[in-house]
Amino acid sequence: MQQTKPRVGIIGTGAIGGFYGLMLAEAGHDVHFLLRSEYDAVVKNGITVDSMVHGSMTLNPVQAYDDVAKMPPCDWLLVGTKATGNADLAPIIAAAAAENAKVVLFQNGLNNETYLRPLLPDHIHLIGGLCYVCLYREGPGQVKHQANGLVDLGYHSGPASGDDAAQIISAAAELFRSSGIEAREMGNIDAARWQKLVWNASFNGVSVLLDAGTESLLKSAASRQLIGDLMSEVVAAAKACGHEMPEDYAAKLLKVTRHMPDYYPSMYHDWLHKRPMELDSLYREALKLAAQAGCSMPKTEALLNMLEFIQDSYLQPE
């Protein structure tokens, strides 16, 4: 029997992939999950999202795979892996993608699509995706969702252009909206990535340095000032690179964060579990682009130097 319903593949079934994949599956979409170390646990117990917004949800059974060669070709691929693993990502995407597949890259930082594009087959449509969501992985197949869930989507590259590319982004947005997830269609994904970086580059690194979540960081005048200064540097760098920023953007982000549940960003969990941190995509790329535009980011550079010291202490052999 011919497959008529689009297949959705999840590459990287951690917090991001687990949450969005479960939401899509709950809405009736045909969702397939690629896993590594958590495969046995997910096959046995399913995927559970404990959400402060949607309540507790469990998907069981799960269409789960421990080898991409076992997955059926997917029309949509949602990539929730860390940018630190992008060197090994392209062959996995190529193996899982159906002809003319649409690949949504849900990763933090700048220019991840630009570096990945040359490694992918020409027929693949590469879409930049941004998640505005507070969540973290509690255990194998277990996700804690605290707030939000909005996604931004913008066409990066592939065989489509103009109206055809816009229609693909509309279809991507509708895929999420049909699952109860707010989605926005972006004409300039690079500008959107800079906007998200204003929050990410500030709170991620400082949470590691000070071993604190958003609530504690905003209670202290000293850390609040540091975060505000870092945000201002990213805003200035974005403008120097030709991207418009909303008026009083840093102040607005701080206000929104005060109303969030106490949140420990993704880099904090990478540090906590002694995994590589996304220093390239969140910091080095921004510093490089800012320097090319004649803009200095001294506090951001100092933050990166301290994070490199911390990461080297647990990644480099003694």
TrEMBL record:
Domain Ketopantoate reductase N-terminal per the UniProt entry, residue ranges: 8-157
One Gene Ontology cellular component: cytoplasm
Keyword Oxidoreductase: yes
GO molecular function, one term: 2-dehydropantoate 2-reductase activity
Catalytic EC class: oxidoreductase
Species in which this protein is naturally found: Halopseudomonas laoshanensis
Pathway(s) of this molecule: Cofactor biosynthesis; (R)-pantothenate biosynthesis; (R)-pantoate from 3-methyl-2-oxobutanoate: step 2/2
GO biological process per UniProt: pantothenate biosynthetic process
Enzyme Commission (EC) number: 1.1.1.169
Name of the featured protein: 2-dehydropantoate 2-reductase
Recorded catalytic activity of this chain's protein: (R)-pantoate + NADP(+) = 2-dehydropantoate + NADPH + H(+)
Keyword Oxidoreductase: yes
SUPFAM superfamilies, alphabetized: 6-phosphogluconate dehydrogenase C-terminal domain-like, NAD(P)-binding Rossmann-fold domains
Domain Ketopantoate reductase C-terminal: 188-310
Keywords carried by this UniProt record: NADP, Oxidoreductase, Pantothenate biosynthesis
Purpose of the protein: Catalyzes the NADPH-dependent reduction of ketopantoate into pantoic acid.
Family indicated by similarity: Belongs to the ketopantoate reductase family.
InterPro entries assigned: 6-PGluconate_DH-like_C_sf, 6PGD_dom2, ApbA, KPA_reductase, KPR-Related, KPR_N, NAD(P)-bd_dom_sf
